[in-house]
């Protein structure tokens, strides 16, 4: 009996028994890992050319609006045409932009503006691939396997975020930018294999031509779909008030010590939490009240962020005291506790993401699923950037520990209030999904 219970705790791998899904998942994992190489390499490349951290930060800012527009339009295309074709065309644009980056690096013709333009194109095309691929998954596997498929996505995300940036730094240092971009080009071939071998997947039900009316149709559906709408709002709340990533460099340099190594450890701990929660996600697929699951997962997320803030506060107050007066070595005890808190936060966020993804793919009709996935990309892209603005601004006027501490409390309070005002969300039943 203990063995059975132990096995049931591990993630459900049954989606990988569906050949089309398995190929798509493996291809997406390889392409995502390569994409992380390019994202980090471009940031390092821009800094090498300019020596300006503001120029590096502007890469993400410049690409935000095109990514949002592409995500929304890509969702409309996914609801109007064969989704396999839409994804292949968008993947081809991503492939071409990365190949051009590699060519420019090999010939020494790269400039800052080329890096900006190609990064924007790459990010926009990727948004279309993501929106379309998410709309494809429910057509490949049975509904009861959607939570397991979302958990597998958590595994790939954890691997990409943990391994990608570190590998990119090593490759750039050892082999240079041209080789790093070229490796991404090769890894992207896996995505083409996953997409090319899919059958034609046209949207089911009434098809609305891509355009303003299609977008309005999506918004009208979202206004009626209180469960889907609330999960978007809850995610924005969690990411706005509980996303301290922008503070990590300063925390590593000023508060905890250890500089870039500490910053990397803090970032990797979130990804580690995502990966571990996916590996032990077996029980998640058996939960029917997924709205309640989202609520509780975000409570844990907020509490973990508040705990992270408390650890930073303790470090600011001098705990633990240095062995030697004036010692500026890394505060290892505080760093260890901070990484544990962030790992818990990453795991809780992933559990919430599994439920949210499952709810969206099961409860949203196929004919409108692409547009809702496009809107979801806007939420996912916008929330962390609002979080960076909140954390950076508040830390400027207070202290580094204050934004995560008060933010975690705000997350818990707002989520409790919003769910209480929408009691239908808690009673959401995965066996009878209603948007």
From TrEMBL:
Keyword Transmembrane helix: yes
Compartments where located: Cell inner membrane
Keywords in alphabetical order: Cell membrane, Membrane, Transmembrane, Transmembrane helix, Transport
Predominant cellular place of this UniProt entry's protein: membrane
SUPFAM superfamilies: MFS general substrate transporter
Single GO term (MF): transmembrane transporter activity
Domain Major facilitator superfamily (MFS) profile: 20-426
Topological relation to the membrane, as annotated: Multi-pass membrane protein
Transport listed as a keyword: yes
GO cellular component assignments: plasma membrane
Signal peptide: none
Highest rank taxon of the organism: Bacteria
Entry's transmembrane regions: 21-48, 54-74, 86-107, 113-136, 148-172, 178-198, 232-255, 261-285, 297-319, 331-351, 372-393, 399-419
Name of the protein in question: MFS transporter
Lineage: Bacteria, Bacillati, Actinomycetota, Actinomycetes, Micrococcales
């Amino acid at each position: 009996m203990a063995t059975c219970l132990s096995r049931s705790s591990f993630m459900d791998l049954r989606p990988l028994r569906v050949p089309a899904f398995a190929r798509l998942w493996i291809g997406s994992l390889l392409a995502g890992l390569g994409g992380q190489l390019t994202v980090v390499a471009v940031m390092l490349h821009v800094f090498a050319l300019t020596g300006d951290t503001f120029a590096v930060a502007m890469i993400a800012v410049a690409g935000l609006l095109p990514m949002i527009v592409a995500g929304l339009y890509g969702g409309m295309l996914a609801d109007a045409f064969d989704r396999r074709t839409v994804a292949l065309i968008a993947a081809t644009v991503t492939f071409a932009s990365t190949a051009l980056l590699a060519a420019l690096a090999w010939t020494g013709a790269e400039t800052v503006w080329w890096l900006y333009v190609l990064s924007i194109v790459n990010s926009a095309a990727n948004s279309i691939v993501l929106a379309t691929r998410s709309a494809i998954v429910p057509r490949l596997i049975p509904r009861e396997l959607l939570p397991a498929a979302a958990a597998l996505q958590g595994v790939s995300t954890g691997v990409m975020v943990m391994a990608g940036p570190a590998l990119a730094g090593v490759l750039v240092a050892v082999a240079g930018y041209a080789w790093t971009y070229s490796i991404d080009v090769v890894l992207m071939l896996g995505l083409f294999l996953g997409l090319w071998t899919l059958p034609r997947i046209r949207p089911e039900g009434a098809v609305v031509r891509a355009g303003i009316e299609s977008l309005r149709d999506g918004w009208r559906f979202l206004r009626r779909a209180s469960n889907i709408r609330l999960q978007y709002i809850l995610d924005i709340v969690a990411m706005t008030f509980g996303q301290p990533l922008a503070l990590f460099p300063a925390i590593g340099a000023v508060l905890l010590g250890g500089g870039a190594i500490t910053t990397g450890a803090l970032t990797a701990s979130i990804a580690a939490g995502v990966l571990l929660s996916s590996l032990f996600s077996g029980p998640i697929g058996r939960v029917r009240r997924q709205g309640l699951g989202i609520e509780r997962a975000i409570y844990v997320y907020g509490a973990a962020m508040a705990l992270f803030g408390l650890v930073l506060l303790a470090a600011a107050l001098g705990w633990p005291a240095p062995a030697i007066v004036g010692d500026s070595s890394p505060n290892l005890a505080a760093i260890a506790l901070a990484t544990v808190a962030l790992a818990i936060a990453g795991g809780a966020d992933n559990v919430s993401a599994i439920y949210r993804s499952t709810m969206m793919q099961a409860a949203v009709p196929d004919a409108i699923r692409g547009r809702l996935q496009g809107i979801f990309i806007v939420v996912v892209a916008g929330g962390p950037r609002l979080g960076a603005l909140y954390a950076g601004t508040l830390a400027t006027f207070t202290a580094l520990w204050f934004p995560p501490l008060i933010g975690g409390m705000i997350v818990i309070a707002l989520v409790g209030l919003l769910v209480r005002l929408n009691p239908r969300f808690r009673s959401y039943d995965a066996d009878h999904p209603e948007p």
